[in-house]
Specification:
about 450 residues; alpha+beta; BirA Bifunctional Protein, domain 2; Rossmann fold; 2 domains; five-stranded mixed sheet; 17 helices; elongated; binds zinc ion
């Protein structure tokens, strides 16, 4: 529209006082609403408890970092960096990125704060949002929350196995059936030999033309990633490809065997997956993914992993620190919650029974407010709705939130120094001595449990 016409239109609009169109959230972004928070509390509590038991300490890093941090660590050819990262120039003309994954930031923090001076291993627990501009679909959000555990300064295969077992138990204790997909992608030495062999396999006649567009690029830029392409035609071509586990150097081979032995002892079921490479530049030796066990055949193809991780022994040094072996994993909180909902896993309701305090009349309300505070301090799980005058509305509220008992204080009870106690299930109500409220509540809640 030409400028002048636009101006004119604007004037007309202000005269009519046009209503603002309501805003909606960005695509791929989600609000967490009231009911969902029950799931969040459950899952985050599980993450917290496990982190504490295994002595991982909480750490938080900024959401915004230099874009180069991720380009250098995750690799410029990784999907996360090349396709999905939110990058922009800020007001100081600095290229910054919204954190697309946690590990590079945690490595940066480890180096920047001189954590190599601390007793090793340094065990970090991270819980925070990550941003990836992915194609939105079920379980794939552009902002999602990740639970991460990372262990710095520990080369032993015990560390890999322990992390995998923690991730496995996280899901098992939330009643989600998962399987661990595991592979070793070797080290600098043995991987080079393998990649050469892999490339000569793909250069055999007729194979290149069957690959997808991305995989054609991978042939020169990131050959390992040829193995985990999800395109059907590429999956077909890779059948018969050489497997890296057959070409590991002695150290990598021993490490992998010991990880698997520990997993056997810890009773963690796993599936050796020769095509698992995880798509990030920094991994060495062990890589793993956690996938849900799905009965429905059709669903299997569409399944997305709930989390994953691995060892990254060279990354700290590569990012400017001292040589420090390390490993870790990340689990998607939203995907985990989605699974709990899909499977209709009942939420544990360990909350104490609710006692609702209702009132009728202004004087009674004042006394009820005091009573509410007394009961709360005494440790009862009390609720109220003192802004409402109607007893009917208050009882409806008590019903809605699933209160076990309702205390009703009216003008008559005020004078008699009594109170009505109503069993919300049976509707039976009794007049009791005001002074005996606590013991009467205890008695009824206790009987209920028997
Ligand atoms: Zn090796
Ligand atoms: Zn492909």
């Amino acid at each position: 529209m030409p400028r002048k016409a636009n101006k004119k239109a604007k004037v007309n609009k202000t005269k009519k006082e046009k209503k603002t169109k309501p805003f909606s959230r960005l695509r791929g972004m989600k609000d967490v609403l009231f009911d969902d928070y029950r799931y969040w509390e459950l899952v985050i509590k599980k993450a917290n408890d496990l982190a504490k038991i295994y002595s991982f300490k909480r750490i938080e890093t900024p959401i915004l970092e230099k874009a180069e941090l991720y380009e250098r660590s995750s690799g410029k050819t990784s999907d996360i960096v090349s396709k999905e990262m939110y990058v922009f120039i800020d007001k100081n003309k600095e290229r910054v990125a919204l954190r697309p994954e946690a590990t590079p930031s945690l490595v940066r923090a480890y180096i920047e704060h001189g954590m190599f001076n601390l007793p090793q291993p340094v065990k970090m627990f991270f819980l925070g949002p990550l941003f990836r501009h992915e194609k939105p679909q079920s379980g794939r959000l552009r902002q999602h929350t990740q639970f991460d555990l990372e262990m710095f300064g520990e080369a032993s295969p015990v560390a890999d196995a322990q992390l995998i077992s923690i991730a496995y138990n996280f899901f098992r204790e939330l009643q989600i059936d998962v399987q661990i997909q595991i592979n070793s992608i070797g080290c600098k030495e043995c991987r080079g030999e393998y990649v050469k062999k892999l490339l000569s396999f793909y250069k055999e006649r007729g194979k290149r033309s069957k690959l997808c567009k991305d995989c054609k690029k991978r042939l020169t830029k990131n050959p390992l990633r040829l193995l985990d392409c999800k395109e059907q035609s590429c999956i077909k071509v890779r059948e018969g490809a050489p497997q890296i586990v057959d070409m590991l150097c002695e150290e990598c081979r021993q490490h992998f065997i010991r990880v698997l032995e520990y997993l056997d002892e810890l009773d963690v079921p796993y599936n050796l997956n020769p095509f698992l490479v995880r798509g990030l530049d920094y991994y060495t030796k062990t890589v793993f993914e956690i996938t849900p066990i799905i009965d429905d055949e059709k669903e299997v193809k569409r399944q997305i992993s709930l989390g994953g991780g691995g060892r990254y022994d060279d990354l700290v040094e590569f990012m400017g620190g001292r040589p420090t072996p390390a490993c870790g994993f990340g689990i998607g909180i939203e995907r985990t919650i989605l699974k709990i909902k899909e499977k209709n896993i009942p939420l544990e309701t360990r909350e104490k029974d609710i006692v609702f305090v209702a009132q009728l009349g202004d004087q009674a309300r004042r006394k009820a407010m005091m009573l509410f505070e007394e009961l709360r301090r005494a440790g009862f799980n009390v609720r109220q709705s003192f802004t409402k005058d109607s007893l009917k509305q208050q009882l409806e509220e008590a019903n809605r939130i699933g209160a076990k008992l309702c205390l009703i204080l009216g003008q008559k009870e005020l004078l008699d120094e009594t109170i009505l106690i109503r069993d919300m299930d049976s509707g039976v109500q009794e007049v009791i001595d005001y002074k005996k409220i606590s013991s009467e509540i205890e008695k009824r809640l206790h009987n209920e449990k028997k």
